Amino acid sequence: MGRLHPWVFSGAIARIEGEVKEGDIVRVFSSRGQELGLGHYANGSIAVRILSFVLGEEINEDFWLERLASALRLRISCGLLKADDKESPNNVYRLVHGEGDGLSGLIIDVYGRTAVMQAHSMGMHLQRETIAQALMKVYEEFCGAGVLEAVYYKSEGTLPTKEQRELCSDGFLVGQTEQEVVYENGVKFLPDWLRGQKTGFFIDQRDNRSLVEHYAEGRKVLNAFCYTGGFSLYALRGGAERVDSLDSSSKAMYLTEEHIRLNFGEDCERHRSITQDAFNFLETMPENEYDLIILDPPAFAKHRKVLRNALIGYRKINTQAFEKIASGGILFTFSCSQAVSKEDFRLAVFSAAAASGRHVRILHQLTQPADHPVSIYHPEGEYLKGLVLQVD
Ligand code: SAH
Question: What separation, in Å, do the N-terminal and C-terminal C-alpha atoms of the chain show?
Protein backbone atom coordinates (compact mmCIF):
# COMPACT_ATOMS: atom_id res chain seq x y z
CA MET A 1 0.00 0.00 0.00
CA GLY A 2 2.92 2.24 0.60
CA ARG A 3 3.23 1.92 -3.14
CA LEU A 4 -0.37 2.95 -3.78
CA HIS A 5 -1.53 -0.52 -4.74
CA PRO A 6 -5.29 -0.45 -4.12
CA TRP A 7 -5.75 -3.94 -2.65
CA VAL A 8 -5.30 -4.82 1.03
CA PHE A 9 -5.22 -8.59 1.51
CA SER A 10 -6.94 -10.11 4.54
CA GLY A 11 -3.65 -11.67 5.69
CA ALA A 12 -2.13 -8.21 6.06
CA ILE A 13 -4.74 -7.06 8.59
CA ALA A 14 -3.81 -7.49 12.26
CA ARG A 15 -6.97 -6.12 13.83
CA ILE A 16 -10.42 -4.90 12.85
CA GLU A 17 -12.04 -2.34 15.15
CA GLY A 18 -15.81 -2.34 15.51
CA GLU A 19 -18.38 -4.15 13.42
CA VAL A 20 -17.71 -4.23 9.71
CA LYS A 21 -20.00 -5.60 7.06
CA GLU A 22 -19.39 -6.52 3.45
CA GLY A 23 -19.38 -3.32 1.41
CA ASP A 24 -18.79 -0.89 4.32
CA ILE A 25 -16.43 2.02 3.91
CA VAL A 26 -13.47 1.50 6.21
CA ARG A 27 -10.29 3.38 7.09
CA VAL A 28 -7.01 1.50 7.03
CA PHE A 29 -4.16 2.25 9.48
CA SER A 30 -0.57 1.10 9.68
CA SER A 31 0.70 -0.79 12.73
CA ARG A 32 1.97 2.56 14.00
CA GLY A 33 -1.51 4.04 13.81
CA GLN A 34 -0.89 6.16 10.75
CA GLU A 35 -3.87 6.46 8.38
CA LEU A 36 -3.12 4.85 5.02
CA GLY A 37 -6.36 5.25 3.13
CA LEU A 38 -10.01 4.34 2.94
CA GLY A 39 -11.99 1.95 0.84
CA HIS A 40 -14.62 -0.77 0.54
CA TYR A 41 -14.48 -3.76 2.85
CA ALA A 42 -15.15 -7.35 1.72
CA ASN A 43 -14.97 -10.76 3.38
CA GLY A 44 -12.69 -12.18 0.69
CA SER A 45 -8.96 -12.45 0.27
CA ILE A 46 -8.96 -8.86 -0.98
CA ALA A 47 -10.30 -7.40 2.26
CA VAL A 48 -10.20 -3.72 1.31
CA ARG A 49 -10.27 -2.07 -2.09
CA ILE A 50 -8.78 1.34 -1.47
CA LEU A 51 -10.62 4.27 -3.04
CA SER A 52 -8.56 7.10 -1.62
CA PHE A 53 -5.07 7.56 -0.23
CA VAL A 54 -5.85 11.18 0.69
CA LEU A 55 -5.90 11.68 4.44
CA GLY A 56 -9.28 12.57 5.85
CA GLU A 57 -11.10 12.20 2.51
CA GLU A 58 -14.76 11.17 2.64
CA ILE A 59 -16.57 8.99 0.13
CA ASN A 60 -19.42 11.36 -0.61
CA GLU A 61 -21.08 12.88 -3.68
CA ASP A 62 -18.08 15.14 -4.32
CA PHE A 63 -15.79 12.13 -4.36
CA TRP A 64 -17.84 10.40 -7.08
CA LEU A 65 -18.24 13.62 -9.07
CA GLU A 66 -14.48 14.23 -9.01
CA ARG A 67 -13.49 10.66 -9.94
CA LEU A 68 -16.07 10.35 -12.72
CA ALA A 69 -15.17 13.77 -14.11
CA SER A 70 -11.52 12.78 -14.19
CA ALA A 71 -12.41 9.54 -16.03
CA LEU A 72 -14.51 11.44 -18.54
CA ARG A 73 -11.81 14.08 -19.12
CA LEU A 74 -9.36 11.30 -20.01
CA ARG A 75 -11.73 9.75 -22.58
CA ILE A 76 -12.38 13.17 -24.10
CA SER A 77 -8.64 13.78 -24.38
CA CYS A 78 -8.24 10.36 -26.06
CA GLY A 79 -10.67 11.55 -28.76
CA LEU A 80 -13.30 8.93 -27.97
CA LEU A 81 -16.32 11.22 -27.65
CA LYS A 82 -16.92 12.07 -31.28
CA ALA A 83 -20.55 11.16 -31.92
CA ASP A 84 -20.90 13.86 -34.57
CA ASP A 85 -17.63 13.40 -36.41
CA LYS A 86 -18.40 13.23 -40.15
CA GLU A 87 -15.60 10.87 -41.12
CA SER A 88 -15.07 8.61 -38.17
CA PRO A 89 -17.75 8.98 -35.49
CA ASN A 90 -17.16 7.23 -32.18
CA ASN A 91 -19.47 6.96 -29.19
CA VAL A 92 -18.52 3.61 -27.66
CA TYR A 93 -15.84 3.56 -24.97
CA ARG A 94 -15.03 2.38 -21.48
CA LEU A 95 -15.52 5.27 -19.08
CA VAL A 96 -14.38 3.57 -15.88
CA HIS A 97 -11.84 0.76 -15.84
CA GLY A 98 -11.69 -0.20 -12.15
CA GLU A 99 -8.31 0.40 -10.55
CA GLY A 100 -7.10 2.16 -13.71
CA ASP A 101 -9.51 4.95 -12.84
CA GLY A 102 -9.02 4.81 -9.08
CA LEU A 103 -12.36 3.00 -8.67
CA SER A 104 -11.55 -0.59 -7.76
CA GLY A 105 -14.60 -2.79 -8.30
CA LEU A 106 -16.39 -0.58 -10.83
CA ILE A 107 -16.71 -0.83 -14.61
CA ILE A 108 -18.71 1.60 -16.73
CA ASP A 109 -19.03 1.23 -20.49
CA VAL A 110 -20.77 3.84 -22.62
CA TYR A 111 -22.79 2.91 -25.69
CA GLY A 112 -24.10 6.12 -27.22
CA ARG A 113 -26.79 7.48 -24.90
CA THR A 114 -26.55 4.60 -22.43
CA ALA A 115 -24.00 3.85 -19.73
CA VAL A 116 -23.76 0.23 -18.58
CA MET A 117 -22.43 -0.13 -15.05
CA GLN A 118 -21.00 -3.28 -13.49
CA ALA A 119 -20.12 -3.74 -9.82
CA HIS A 120 -17.47 -6.29 -8.92
CA SER A 121 -17.70 -5.59 -5.17
CA MET A 122 -20.50 -5.20 -2.65
CA GLY A 123 -19.14 -1.73 -1.85
CA MET A 124 -19.79 -0.54 -5.39
CA HIS A 125 -23.15 -2.33 -5.45
CA LEU A 126 -24.33 -0.42 -2.38
CA GLN A 127 -23.28 2.89 -3.95
CA ARG A 128 -24.89 2.24 -7.34
CA GLU A 129 -27.65 4.88 -7.07
CA THR A 130 -25.23 7.60 -5.94
CA ILE A 131 -22.79 6.70 -8.70
CA ALA A 132 -25.52 6.74 -11.36
CA GLN A 133 -26.75 10.18 -10.24
CA ALA A 134 -23.21 11.56 -10.17
CA LEU A 135 -22.60 10.17 -13.64
CA MET A 136 -25.61 12.00 -15.06
CA LYS A 137 -24.44 15.25 -13.44
CA VAL A 138 -20.91 14.93 -14.80
CA TYR A 139 -22.12 14.28 -18.36
CA GLU A 140 -24.49 17.21 -18.20
CA GLU A 141 -21.67 19.47 -17.10
CA PHE A 142 -19.08 18.27 -19.64
CA CYS A 143 -21.21 17.24 -22.63
CA GLY A 144 -24.53 19.07 -22.18
CA ALA A 145 -27.99 17.75 -21.40
CA GLY A 146 -29.27 14.70 -23.29
CA VAL A 147 -25.90 13.27 -24.33
CA LEU A 148 -26.21 10.59 -21.65
CA GLU A 149 -29.83 9.53 -21.15
CA ALA A 150 -29.74 6.34 -19.14
CA VAL A 151 -27.70 4.23 -16.76
CA TYR A 152 -28.24 0.48 -16.93
CA TYR A 153 -27.00 -1.65 -14.04
CA LYS A 154 -25.72 -5.12 -14.88
CA SER A 155 -24.13 -6.95 -11.96
CA GLU A 156 -26.13 -10.16 -11.60
CA GLY A 157 -23.15 -11.98 -13.05
CA THR A 158 -20.24 -10.02 -11.59
CA LEU A 159 -20.71 -9.62 -7.83
CA PRO A 160 -18.27 -11.86 -5.94
CA THR A 161 -20.59 -14.25 -4.10
CA LYS A 162 -23.65 -16.28 -5.07
CA GLU A 163 -25.81 -14.69 -2.32
CA GLN A 164 -24.88 -11.21 -3.50
CA ARG A 165 -25.64 -12.10 -7.10
CA GLU A 166 -29.02 -13.50 -6.07
CA LEU A 167 -29.86 -10.30 -4.19
CA CYS A 168 -28.96 -8.13 -7.15
CA SER A 169 -31.32 -7.35 -9.98
CA ASP A 170 -30.26 -5.83 -13.26
CA GLY A 171 -32.14 -2.87 -14.69
CA PHE A 172 -32.13 0.85 -15.40
CA LEU A 173 -31.08 3.11 -12.53
CA VAL A 174 -31.68 6.28 -14.53
CA GLY A 175 -33.90 6.77 -17.60
CA GLN A 176 -34.66 4.05 -20.09
CA THR A 177 -33.26 3.60 -23.58
CA GLU A 178 -33.67 1.11 -26.38
CA GLN A 179 -30.83 -0.60 -28.20
CA GLU A 180 -29.38 1.84 -30.72
CA VAL A 181 -26.76 1.89 -33.45
CA VAL A 182 -23.46 3.18 -32.08
CA TYR A 183 -20.15 3.95 -33.75
CA GLU A 184 -16.64 2.69 -33.21
CA ASN A 185 -14.21 4.46 -35.53
CA GLY A 186 -17.12 4.93 -37.95
CA VAL A 187 -18.08 1.22 -37.91
CA LYS A 188 -21.70 0.64 -36.87
CA PHE A 189 -22.61 -1.75 -34.06
CA LEU A 190 -25.83 -2.59 -32.24
CA PRO A 191 -24.65 -3.64 -28.76
CA ASP A 192 -27.03 -5.73 -26.70
CA TRP A 193 -26.34 -4.79 -23.12
CA LEU A 194 -29.32 -6.81 -21.85
CA ARG A 195 -28.31 -10.19 -23.23
CA GLY A 196 -24.74 -9.79 -24.50
CA GLN A 197 -21.57 -11.05 -22.79
CA LYS A 198 -19.97 -8.68 -20.24
CA THR A 199 -21.56 -5.28 -20.84
CA GLY A 200 -22.59 -6.28 -24.36
CA PHE A 201 -19.62 -5.69 -26.59
CA PHE A 202 -15.83 -5.97 -26.46
CA ILE A 203 -14.60 -2.40 -26.46
CA ASP A 204 -11.02 -3.37 -25.71
CA GLN A 205 -10.14 -4.41 -29.27
CA ARG A 206 -10.85 -1.01 -30.90
CA ASP A 207 -7.25 -0.09 -31.71
CA ASN A 208 -6.35 -3.65 -32.69
CA ARG A 209 -9.32 -3.81 -35.06
CA SER A 210 -7.98 -0.67 -36.77
CA LEU A 211 -4.66 -2.42 -37.25
CA VAL A 212 -6.44 -5.36 -38.90
CA GLU A 213 -8.11 -2.88 -41.26
CA HIS A 214 -4.68 -1.54 -42.13
CA TYR A 215 -3.40 -4.99 -43.19
CA ALA A 216 -6.59 -6.32 -44.79
CA GLU A 217 -6.43 -5.09 -48.36
CA GLY A 218 -6.67 -7.95 -50.86
CA ARG A 219 -6.35 -10.59 -48.16
CA LYS A 220 -8.36 -13.70 -47.39
CA VAL A 221 -9.26 -13.36 -43.74
CA LEU A 222 -10.31 -15.82 -41.05
CA ASN A 223 -11.72 -14.17 -37.93
CA ALA A 224 -11.88 -16.99 -35.38
CA PHE A 225 -13.79 -16.45 -32.10
CA CYS A 226 -15.53 -13.52 -33.79
CA TYR A 227 -18.36 -12.88 -31.25
CA THR A 228 -20.06 -9.75 -32.69
CA GLY A 229 -17.79 -9.67 -35.74
CA GLY A 230 -15.71 -6.62 -34.83
CA PHE A 231 -12.52 -7.65 -36.62
CA SER A 232 -14.50 -8.85 -39.67
CA LEU A 233 -16.14 -5.46 -40.17
CA TYR A 234 -12.81 -3.64 -40.09
CA ALA A 235 -11.23 -6.22 -42.45
CA LEU A 236 -14.07 -5.75 -44.94
CA ARG A 237 -13.76 -1.97 -44.70
CA GLY A 238 -10.03 -2.33 -45.23
CA GLY A 239 -10.63 -4.04 -48.59
CA ALA A 240 -10.23 -7.72 -47.76
CA GLU A 241 -10.94 -10.02 -50.70
CA ARG A 242 -13.08 -12.17 -48.44
CA VAL A 243 -13.70 -12.63 -44.74
CA ASP A 244 -14.82 -15.78 -42.94
CA SER A 245 -16.17 -15.20 -39.43
CA LEU A 246 -16.21 -18.16 -37.08
CA ASP A 247 -17.74 -18.73 -33.65
CA SER A 248 -19.14 -21.81 -31.93
CA SER A 249 -22.12 -19.81 -30.66
CA SER A 250 -25.02 -19.37 -33.07
CA LYS A 251 -26.08 -16.27 -31.10
CA ALA A 252 -22.66 -14.75 -31.82
CA MET A 253 -22.95 -15.59 -35.51
CA TYR A 254 -26.40 -14.01 -35.60
CA LEU A 255 -24.94 -10.80 -34.11
CA THR A 256 -22.07 -10.87 -36.59
CA GLU A 257 -24.45 -11.17 -39.54
CA GLU A 258 -26.61 -8.40 -38.20
CA HIS A 259 -23.53 -6.15 -38.05
CA ILE A 260 -22.43 -7.15 -41.55
CA ARG A 261 -25.87 -6.15 -42.90
CA LEU A 262 -25.82 -2.92 -40.95
CA ASN A 263 -22.51 -1.86 -42.48
CA PHE A 264 -22.38 -3.54 -45.90
CA GLY A 265 -26.03 -4.19 -46.85
CA GLU A 266 -28.06 -7.36 -47.37
CA ASP A 267 -25.77 -9.28 -49.71
CA CYS A 268 -22.18 -8.89 -48.71
CA GLU A 269 -20.65 -11.50 -50.98
CA ARG A 270 -17.21 -11.06 -49.47
CA HIS A 271 -18.42 -12.42 -46.13
CA ARG A 272 -19.18 -15.94 -44.95
CA SER A 273 -20.36 -17.17 -41.52
CA ILE A 274 -19.13 -20.39 -40.00
CA THR A 275 -20.77 -21.74 -36.85
CA GLN A 276 -18.26 -24.28 -35.62
CA ASP A 277 -15.82 -25.12 -32.89
CA ALA A 278 -12.60 -23.25 -33.66
CA PHE A 279 -10.31 -26.09 -32.54
CA ASN A 280 -12.02 -28.47 -35.00
CA PHE A 281 -12.13 -25.94 -37.78
CA LEU A 282 -8.45 -25.04 -37.51
CA GLU A 283 -7.46 -28.68 -37.39
CA THR A 284 -9.36 -29.64 -40.52
CA MET A 285 -9.06 -26.50 -42.67
CA PRO A 286 -6.85 -26.85 -45.76
CA GLU A 287 -3.47 -25.11 -46.01
CA ASN A 288 -3.10 -21.73 -47.74
CA GLU A 289 -6.82 -20.93 -47.46
CA TYR A 290 -6.13 -17.71 -45.53
CA ASP A 291 -3.41 -15.09 -45.46
CA LEU A 292 -4.72 -13.12 -42.51
CA ILE A 293 -5.90 -15.00 -39.44
CA ILE A 294 -7.26 -13.53 -36.21
CA LEU A 295 -7.39 -15.65 -33.06
CA ASP A 296 -9.18 -13.92 -30.18
CA PRO A 297 -10.37 -16.72 -27.90
CA PRO A 298 -12.18 -16.27 -24.57
CA ALA A 299 -10.06 -16.26 -21.40
CA PHE A 300 -8.76 -19.84 -21.31
CA ALA A 301 -7.47 -19.35 -17.75
CA LYS A 302 -9.68 -17.56 -15.25
CA HIS A 303 -7.08 -18.16 -12.53
CA ARG A 304 -3.47 -19.34 -12.19
CA LYS A 305 -4.48 -22.90 -11.23
CA VAL A 306 -5.59 -23.72 -14.75
CA LEU A 307 -2.70 -21.89 -16.38
CA ARG A 308 -1.12 -25.01 -17.82
CA ASN A 309 -4.29 -26.03 -19.66
CA ALA A 310 -4.71 -22.51 -20.94
CA LEU A 311 -1.19 -22.48 -22.35
CA ILE A 312 -1.81 -25.81 -24.06
CA GLY A 313 -4.95 -24.28 -25.62
CA TYR A 314 -3.05 -21.24 -26.91
CA ARG A 315 -0.31 -23.43 -28.23
CA LYS A 316 -2.77 -25.67 -30.04
CA ILE A 317 -4.70 -23.02 -31.95
CA ASN A 318 -1.58 -21.03 -32.78
CA THR A 319 0.24 -24.11 -34.08
CA GLN A 320 -2.66 -24.79 -36.46
CA ALA A 321 -2.66 -21.19 -37.65
CA PHE A 322 1.13 -21.21 -38.26
CA GLU A 323 0.92 -24.52 -40.12
CA LYS A 324 -1.96 -23.51 -42.38
CA ILE A 325 -1.51 -19.80 -43.08
CA ALA A 326 -0.35 -18.90 -46.60
CA SER A 327 3.20 -17.68 -47.10
CA GLY A 328 3.46 -13.95 -46.38
CA GLY A 329 0.43 -14.30 -44.13
CA ILE A 330 -0.27 -12.24 -41.04
CA LEU A 331 -1.48 -13.70 -37.78
CA PHE A 332 -3.17 -11.57 -35.12
CA THR A 333 -3.18 -13.65 -31.95
CA PHE A 334 -4.58 -12.60 -28.55
CA SER A 335 -5.01 -13.64 -24.96
CA CYS A 336 -7.40 -11.82 -22.65
CA SER A 337 -6.71 -14.07 -19.63
CA GLN A 338 -5.45 -11.94 -16.79
CA ALA A 339 -3.82 -15.03 -15.25
CA VAL A 340 -1.64 -15.48 -18.34
CA SER A 341 1.29 -13.07 -18.36
CA LYS A 342 2.73 -11.44 -21.46
CA GLU A 343 5.75 -13.74 -21.08
CA ASP A 344 3.62 -16.89 -20.71
CA PHE A 345 1.65 -16.01 -23.80
CA ARG A 346 4.74 -15.15 -25.82
CA LEU A 347 6.23 -18.51 -24.86
CA ALA A 348 3.08 -20.40 -25.94
CA VAL A 349 3.12 -18.62 -29.30
CA PHE A 350 6.86 -19.18 -29.64
CA SER A 351 6.49 -22.92 -29.09
CA ALA A 352 3.61 -23.01 -31.60
CA ALA A 353 5.81 -21.27 -34.19
CA ALA A 354 8.70 -23.63 -33.46
CA ALA A 355 6.39 -26.65 -33.81
CA SER A 356 5.32 -25.44 -37.26
CA GLY A 357 8.90 -24.82 -38.34
CA ARG A 358 7.85 -21.64 -40.21
CA HIS A 359 9.88 -18.46 -40.33
CA VAL A 360 7.97 -16.06 -38.06
CA ARG A 361 8.57 -12.40 -37.25
CA ILE A 362 6.87 -10.17 -34.68
CA LEU A 363 5.52 -7.01 -36.31
CA HIS A 364 3.51 -5.55 -33.43
CA GLN A 365 2.96 -6.22 -29.74
CA LEU A 366 -0.54 -5.23 -28.79
CA THR A 367 -2.41 -4.49 -25.61
CA GLN A 368 -5.60 -2.83 -24.42
CA PRO A 369 -6.50 0.73 -25.52
CA ALA A 370 -6.22 3.97 -23.53
CA ASP A 371 -9.78 3.81 -22.20
CA HIS A 372 -8.68 0.66 -20.33
CA PRO A 373 -5.82 2.37 -18.48
CA VAL A 374 -3.55 0.50 -16.09
CA SER A 375 -2.50 2.09 -12.82
CA ILE A 376 1.25 1.66 -12.64
CA TYR A 377 0.76 0.52 -9.03
CA HIS A 378 -1.72 -2.17 -10.12
CA PRO A 379 -0.11 -4.17 -12.93
CA GLU A 380 -2.90 -6.78 -12.58
CA GLY A 381 -5.07 -4.33 -14.55
CA GLU A 382 -3.16 -5.16 -17.74
CA TYR A 383 -4.89 -8.21 -19.19
CA LEU A 384 -5.06 -8.02 -22.98
CA LYS A 385 -2.02 -9.24 -24.89
CA GLY A 386 -1.64 -9.60 -28.60
CA LEU A 387 1.03 -10.32 -31.19
CA VAL A 388 0.96 -9.56 -34.89
CA LEU A 389 3.20 -12.01 -36.69
CA GLN A 390 4.34 -12.34 -40.24
CA VAL A 391 4.75 -15.90 -41.45
CA ASP A 392 6.96 -16.63 -44.44
N1 SAH B 1 -13.08 -11.20 -31.06
C2 SAH B 1 -14.30 -10.80 -30.40
C3 SAH B 1 -14.36 -11.23 -28.94
C4 SAH B 1 -14.19 -12.71 -28.73
S5 SAH B 1 -14.97 -13.30 -27.29
C6 SAH B 1 -14.49 -9.29 -30.55
O7 SAH B 1 -13.64 -8.61 -31.13
O8 SAH B 1 -15.52 -8.82 -30.10
C9 SAH B 1 -14.75 -15.00 -27.44
C10 SAH B 1 -15.72 -15.70 -28.38
O11 SAH B 1 -15.26 -17.04 -28.54
C12 SAH B 1 -17.17 -15.82 -27.88
O13 SAH B 1 -18.03 -15.27 -28.85
C14 SAH B 1 -17.42 -17.34 -27.78
O15 SAH B 1 -18.72 -17.74 -28.22
C16 SAH B 1 -16.38 -17.89 -28.70
N17 SAH B 1 -15.92 -19.27 -28.42
C18 SAH B 1 -15.63 -19.83 -27.22
N19 SAH B 1 -15.14 -21.08 -27.37
C20 SAH B 1 -15.11 -21.32 -28.71
C21 SAH B 1 -14.70 -22.42 -29.51
N22 SAH B 1 -14.21 -23.53 -28.95
N23 SAH B 1 -14.80 -22.30 -30.86
C24 SAH B 1 -15.29 -21.18 -31.42
N25 SAH B 1 -15.69 -20.11 -30.72
C26 SAH B 1 -15.61 -20.17 -29.38
Answer: 48
- From CA 356, how far away is CA 358, in angstroms rounded? 5
Q: Ligand 1, closest atom to CA 278?
A: 23
Query: In this structure, which residue's CA is closest to atom 10 in ligand 1?
Result: 225
Q: Which of 355, 189, 206, 337 is nearest to 258 (CA)?
A: 189
Q: Are strands 25-29 and 35-41 parallel, antiparallel or unpaired?
A: antiparallel
Residues framing ligand 1 (Cβ under 6 A): 202, 205, 225-228, 230-231, 247-249, 252, 277-279, 296-298
- Mutate which of 199, 211, 226 to test ligand 1's pocket (most atoms within 8 Å of Cβ)? 226
The pTM of the full predicted model, rounded to 2 decimals, is 0.96
Per-residue confidence in pLDDT tens, the chain, 392 aa: 457 999 999 999 999 999 999 999 999 999 999 999 999 999 999 999 999 999 889 999 999 999 999 999 999 999 999 999 999 999 999 999 999 999 999 999 999 999 999 999 999 999 999 999 999 999 999 999 999 999 999 999 999 999 899 989 999 999 999 999 999 999 999 999 888 877 788 999 999 999 999 999 999 999 999 999 999 999 999 999 999 999 999 999 999 999 999 999 999 999 999 999 999 999 999 999 999 999 999 998 777 778 999 999 999 999 999 999 999 999 999 999 999 999 999 999 999 999 999 999 999 999 999 999 999 999 999 999 999 999 99
Distance from the alpha carbon of residue 6 to the mean position of ligand 1, in angstroms: 31
Residue 123 corresponds to which amino acid?
G
Q: Name the residue at shortest CA distance from atom 18 of ligand 1.
A: 298
